[in-house]
Each structure stands twice: as structure tokens, then as C-alpha cells.
Amino acid sequence: MRKNVLILGHNDATPFVDIYNQYTKLFNKNKYEVTVAYLTGDPNEETKKRTLAENIIFLNLPKRSIRSLKINAIKTLLTLTREKQFQIVICHRYKPIYTMLWVAKFHKIPALIAVMHELGTMSSIHRRMLIACLAGENVLLAGVSNAVRDDLRKNAWHIPKERIITLYNAIDVELTEPQLLNRETARKNLQLLGDAFVFGNLGRLATNKDQESLIHAFSLIRPYCPTAKLMIIGTGELESRLKQQVESHGLKDDVLFTGFLTNGFRYMKAFDCFVLSSIQEAFGRVLLEAMMAKLPIIATRVHGIPEVISTVGTLVEPKDIHGLATAMRKIYELSQATRNSNSEVAYQHLTMHFSIPRFYEQFWQLPLIQEIDAAPKHFSTML
User: Fold this and answer.
1) 39: Cβ–Cβ under 8 A, 6 or more apart, which residues?
2) What tens digit of pLDDT does each residue of 287-339 get?
3) Which sign, positive or negative, has the C-alpha torsion 105, 108, 111, 117?
4) Which alpha helices (H) appear in the chain, and where do they start and end?
5) How far apart are CA 119 and CA 349, in angstroms?
6) Strands 228-233 and 273-276
7) pTM
């Protein structure tokens, strides 16, 4: 009889579906039956198609039911847990984690992994107290980077450091790389004509992504880089302000906003260089997509980014506009052969450190998981 695994997420936002698939692929179907459950959101056929798990459940809980004590959510998941007798539960983000920690108080779960995707998740005293009270010896807290792990270790109360670990985000290169549009098609779809050298940015138009500094840096290099363009894929609350900034710099024809594009990573090969100007970044999954597209990368030296980039990209200090401009101009002036060679090294770095096979090795080295894998299936009991 196979052992049951639950992967619980807040919603079916595209980046998280990819992450749930990352975890699903850990488990041999001959030994494990994987269920992915979405805490909120209506049943969605497109999400079902994209989710690799054997069982897909849309709990469709109203948002009000996952606020405060989340009693209805706890009841719903307790019923599911008793029915399926999960041996391993992997939760992503705080609300699913909080909910399953309560479920584990009423029904034993041999291994519960709580994956945090942001910095500051445990900064409030209220959350620290709750996690300290609810997290038993069967619970591992995981950050998606060492930066997140260290933030958790600093803030979590009464949880041994060895139970606060790093589980890096990974990318399924085999599945995802074929989805990239080739350069010609991507440029045609984005209406990029001629021989423009395109600096690309992909992400929310939000304060922590700091596209404002990126636009400013681009304005400094534009007189020296005659074929340069800056393309920003995404939408967000700062869109209007950023467009006004572009107008004030006289860059309307050189800084291009596409708005939101479904699966925006597919257009990566339209770029000649990828730039991530964030002032806060727990991991930076988009950097993996840029490596997969074999692009030169410039990024800021903040939080999880240096762990991802290592030595295969250019790091600058956050909000260092002149440093960012210098790095952009340097990439522009490199020969195509040099850019290609450097990008190939970055691609190899991706496959070596952030691919599914590497993540598989990392996950199955966890002692708690090894114990469950080796043990015969046993049924949980009421506490």
C-alpha cells in the first residue's frame, strides 16, 4: 500500500503551481500517492491540467474562513487528513502552515514541512508564540534560501536550529525549457524590431522590485548605447508612476511596458540581458528562468539573490544607480561570443544547483524524511 503525501498551498498562482510540481516530482508513484490541495479559489480546469499530482483538490474556502482562527479551514483539513492518513505534509506560505499545525494537534502527522517563501514571515510576536506552541518534533521549518532560513532562525522561538533548514526553489528544466519561445518568435510577439539590444525585467511593478532605479540607470547609459531598449514585463501598483518617470526622462520610445503576460518567462529569449533591481528578494525564481534562457544577468546583492547568482552573474548594491548603469553598459559592450560563453556557464550552474535532480538529492537527505521512506506504512492515531 502506498504512503500518502499532501502538498498544501494558498492558491493557484502560476509560480506556486510550479513549486507544487517541484515537490510532487520528488515522490515515486509506486511508493507514494500525492495530493495537492488549494486552500482558496474555485475549481479550475486549467490549474488541474498544470498540476502534476495524482489527486487535485480545490478546497474553495472563503477568504474570511482563513482569517483569524481559521476554524472552518482546520475542520476541513482535519477531515481530509483523517481520511487520507498523510505520512508527509508539505505546506507553502503562512496560512496553510498555521492551519496544518493545528490539524497536527488533533491527528498525528509523521512529517510536516512548513516552507516559508518570504522574509519577515515570523517577525510578529503573535506568530512566534503560535509556532512555538504548535510546532512539535515532527515539524521542519524550511526557508527557500539561506537568507530566509536565517531570518526564521533569528525570529522563531524554542525551535532548534537543526529543524530550521533550507529547501531551495528549483526549476524543472526538462519540462520548462521547451516552453521558451525562440528569439525570433518572442521578439515578433513583443513587437521588437531591428537589432535592438534589450535589457529585460520581469516581475510585479512594486516597491520591492525597484524598477525606478532600473529606469534611472538605463537613462544614464542610453546616450552611450544607441541600440539599447529596456523592456519591463508585468503590472502592479507603480505602473503609472514608472511610466511618468519614463516620460520625464524622454525615454518613451526606449522603455517598453508590456503589461501582464501569461507565462511571461516564455519571452525571455527576446532579451539580451536580464536585470533584477530588487531591494528585497527572498530567492528570485525569475533568475532561474533567465539562466535557463541563457541570458547574461545583472542583479542586486540582497537577501537570497547572491545564493542564486553565485559567480555566474553581475551583482550590484541595491539602489546603486551608477553601479547598475556601469554593469549594464559593460554587458552591452561585451562581444556576443563572450556573452554567450558566460550565459552557458550560468546554464550549467542552474542544472547543477537548482534543477529537480539536485532538489531530489537535497530533500531525501533529510533524516526525518529518510525515516518515513524506510518505514512500512503505519496509520496515524488520534492524539
Assistant:
1) 8, 9, 10, 11, 59, 61, 66, 73, 95, 96, 99
2) 999 999 999 999 999 999 999 999 999 999 999 999 999 999 999 999 999 99
3) negative
4) 14-24, 45-50, 71-84, 94-106, 125-134, 146-155, 173-176, 183-189, 211-221, 239-248, 285-292, 305-309, 321-333, 336-353, 356-363, 367-374
5) 25
6) unpaired
7) 0.90
pLDDT of residue 188: 95
> In this structure, what C-alpha cell is assigned to residue 46?
486549467
Q: With H, G, I as helix, E, B as strand and everything else as coil, classify residue 131.
A: helix
What CA–CA distance (Å, rounded) separates 344 from 295? 8
d(CA 116, CA 152): 9
Distances from the Cα of 152 to the Cαs of 68, 160, 163, 176, 327, in angstroms? 22, 11, 11, 31, 33
Instruction: Give the CATH number of domain 3-170+356-374; options: 1.25.60.10, 3.40.50.1980, 3.40.50.2000, 3.30.450.40.
Output: 3.40.50.2000
Question: Could you give the angle at which helices 356-363 and 336-353 cross, rounded to 10 degrees?
Answer: 30
Fold classification of 174-353 is Rossmann fold (3.40.50)
Of the candidates 123, 132, 10, the one whose C-alpha atom is nearest the C-alpha of residue 59 is: 10
Question: Using CA of residue 89, residue 93, residue 94, residue 95, what is the dihedral sign?
Answer: negative
Task: Name which of 19, 131, 38, 129 is nearest 77 in CA terms.
Answer: 38
- Low-confidence stretches of the chain (pLDDT < 70) are 63-69, 377-383
Task: Identify whether the C-beta of residue 314 lies closer than 8 Å to the C-beta of residue 299.
Answer: yes
Indicate the Cα dihedral angle 75, 78, 80, 81, nearest 10°. 170
Distance CA 329, CA 225 (A): 7
Mutual angle of helices 336-353 and 285-292, in 10-degree steps:
120
Please report, for the chain, the start and end positions of each structural domain, with discontinuous segments joined by +.
Answer: 3-170+356-374, 174-353
Question: CB-based contacts of 16: which residues, under 8 Å, 6+ apart?
Answer: 9, 10, 92
- Residue 178: what residue type? P
Q: Tell me, what's the pLDDT at 32?
A: 96
**Closest residue by Cα to residue 42 from 56, 61, 55:** 61
Q: Which residues of 269-301 are buried (b: 16+ CB within 10 A; e: fewer)?
A: bbbbbbbbbbebbbbbbbbbbbbbbbbbbbbbe
State the pLDDT at residue 65: 53
The single residue listed with the C-alpha cell 491527528 is 107
